């Protein structure tokens, strides 16, 4: 009988990633600021993307409006997100991780799961903790950035461990926290149930009504009792998770779920023409992102955040997949007008999301010879764009021009008129 070795899973989390990259990119400005907020300029209506640990001590948190963050920490320096540099550093870190782990999965731009299974002999049977420290040193040598690493027998345990690994001021943490096999339940016991991934506010409130606050509380319940109160599926799920049982695997790449762009405006927009122009601008950008990933989408979503912070959205799944900015704006405009017609107030934020991708559209598509006298496509129904080979070929030709001469080399004529001021925009 063969005994399987315990899994060896790491979660590598870049420390204050956006803050660290901003400091690298501007050593004389952001690099000198101990109290640093990344996400927007003072006076903008953007939100905090990240904040230095020193700012977090004042109560500054991610997704908090910049204005509120500066009320909590008025001495802080605010800078925009260096998106290009962040993307480059993320790829560099993943390349380093790939030299240590046979399987690396990017969970976000600054988090990666690593399955270290089968590497015991490769690393001379060194401890997983020792390997994790070597990974930290290699990442720092390659990028100048620090990472924290949680390690355990499952993705769940690694995720919980990394929070205790982070070298926050006063914690004494070393950047690595390993949970030995067999100690998962004891390790998790002190955490609150709300700290568990996938335990949202509603589920947390339900557990509180049952008298359950900490993971240790839930560990006292058997599976049948939990199922009787929470349902069969939720009860079994919670019973396993509070004991560190999580069979989810690390895969090289998670399927892309959505491509989206949104912008927060410097002032509330009321003029429909101006808003639709911004919608067009977003359609150009999000469709470009879509094509760069070799995707076509069937579902278009438009998101509005009103002046009173109420968020609304509408979506439509199309009969055929689309990729061109012409098709995206056709569908998005109908969705926007439907939302706008229901509630005519100032618009604070506007967004377009594309999802429900075709699986068979990867890589370079074959070139299509277009006939000069090709028959035009049938007229689309409202909000139902019809894309043909000519549309796609034209769009990809525009992409090549923009790649060579910049994204503003060719833009829709409607975007040339800049008379309507939207205030400082924050692209999300």
- Helix-strand pattern, N to C? EHEEHHEHEEHEHEHHHHHEHEEHEHE
Distance between the first and last residues' Cα: 54 Å
Helix content: 25-40%
CATH superfamily of the largest domain: DNA polymerase, Y-family, little finger domain
* Number of DSSP helical runs: 14
Mean pLDDT, nearest integer? 85
CATH fold-level name of the largest domain: Dna Ligase, domain 1
Q: Enumerate the strands of the largest sheet in spatial order, edge to edge or round the barrel.
A: 5-6-1-7-8
- Name the structural class: alpha+beta
Question: Could you please describe the fold and organization of this structure?
Answer:
The protein is α+β, with helices and mostly antiparallel strands and 428 residues long. The chain has four domains: 9-15 and 84-181, Reverse transcriptase/Diguanylate cyclase domain (Alpha-Beta Plaits); 27-81, 3-Layer(aba) Sandwich (MutS, DNA mismatch repair protein, domain I), CATH 3.40.1170; 187-241, Orthogonal Bundle (DNA polymerase, domain 1); 258-427, Dna Ligase, domain 1. 36% of the residues lie in helices and 19% in strands. It contains 14 helices and 13 strands. It has helices spanning 17-25, 53-56, 66-72, 83-98, 128-143, 155-165, 184-188, 201-209, 215-219, 223-230, 232-241, 272-292, 325-342, 389-405, and strands at residues 9-14, 36-38, 50-51, 77-79, 103-108, 111-115, 147-152, 176-178, 258-269, 297-306, 311-322, 347-357, 426-427. The strands form three sheets. The protein has a five-stranded mixed beta sheet. A hairpin with a 4-residue loop joins strand 10 and strand 11. Helix 4 crosses helix 5, helix 10 (223-230) crosses helix 11 (232-241) and helix 12 crosses helix 13 (325-342). It is globular and about 65 Å long. The termini are far apart. The model is unreliable at 359-380 and 422-426 (pLDDT under 50).
